[in-house]
Amino acid sequence: MADAPSQVEVLFQDDAFVAVAKPPDLSVHSGPGAGSHVLREVKARFGELLPVHRLDKQASGVLLLARNKAALKTAQNVWERARKTYWALVEGAPSEATGVIDAPVLDHRSEKPERVRVAMDWHRKNNPKLELPEPPSPGRSAVHPAGRPTQTEFEVRAQFSAGGKTWSVLHVRPRQGRLHQIRVHLAHAGWPLAVDAFYGTRSELRTRDWGLGDDVLLTRVPLHALKLELPHPMRPEVQLSIEAPLAADLAGLLGSLEAQR
């Protein structure tokens, strides 16, 4: 039986790279258990592709994939020059229209536990009188004295009042790529994502949060990789700018908020 057509939208392709719009709740690559993932969804059309970067399973938006190991290596060499813009819905309101969240993040990647141990040991050695808080559990991150310097730019795009609360649409740009960097920094700043079971205040958003009934509005983090800009890794004279339309569930959520005005 032939595979079903992929539901993953292709945003860009050339002889070295493919960029897709990752749907929410679809992993980039295979993990424990059954189920599809982005690489499986695009394999029939493009063959084996290699992810250049990560997106959380719940997040949606631009994902860049390399066609081979040589292309992947060149992309990794210029990745620090990439500019990544995310759309986010948060609870709360920044006091400034633009700014930078600057706080060290200690990320505990499950596959690299030694990094946390080394960071904690180094900080204890250099700050013997400072009592360190516990590190984040595996698979999570935290603002932590033993963390690495980390900055996330933000820009307020819209604000709404609903259910006695203020909700803000932000464009955020992480300068690094720490595990859950945006989610951790937004929560640290006092504006957690409107849905975030790890770092926020709720695991789902309901109409009662806006003072309207009790229907479920959203069950995943409202975080969308909106735009990716970087010099083409194989052709430096070419500047790539790849955008992914706002995912349907987030567009519907935004429309519902705008209706409250």
Q: What topology does this entry show?
A:
Blueprint: E1 9-13, E2 17-22, H1 38-46, E3 50-51, E4 60-66, H2 69-78, E5 83-91, E6 98-102, E7 105-108, H3 114-126, E8 140-143, E9 151-162, E10 165-174, H4 181-189, E11 205-206, E12 216-218, E13 223-231, E14 239-243, H5 248-258
Parallel strand pairs: 4-13
Antiparallel strand pairs: 1-2, 2-4, 3-4, 5-10, 5-13, 6-9, 7-8, 9-10, 11-12, 13-14
CATH architecture designation of the largest domain: 2-Layer Sandwich
Shape: globular
Query: In whole angstroms, how far apart are the ends?
Result: 50 Å
Annotation, overall tally of beta strands: 14
What does this structure look like?
It is a single chain. The protein folds into two domains: 9-103 and 150-258, Pseudouridine synthase, CATH 3.30.2350; 108-145, no CATH class. The termini are far apart. The radius of gyration is 19 Å and the shape is globular. The strands form three sheets. Strands 1, 2, 3, 4, 5, 6, 9, 10, 13 and 14 form a ten-stranded mixed β-sheet that branches. 20% of the residues lie in helices and 32% in strands. The protein has helices at 38-46, 69-78, 114-126, 181-189, 248-258; strands spanning 9-13, 17-22, 50-51, 60-66, 83-91, 98-102, 105-108, 140-143, 151-162, 165-174, 205-206, 216-218, 223-231, 239-243. Strand 3 (50-51) and strand 4 (60-66) form a beta hairpin. The chain has five helices and 14 strands. The protein is α+β, with helices and mostly antiparallel strands and 261 residues long.
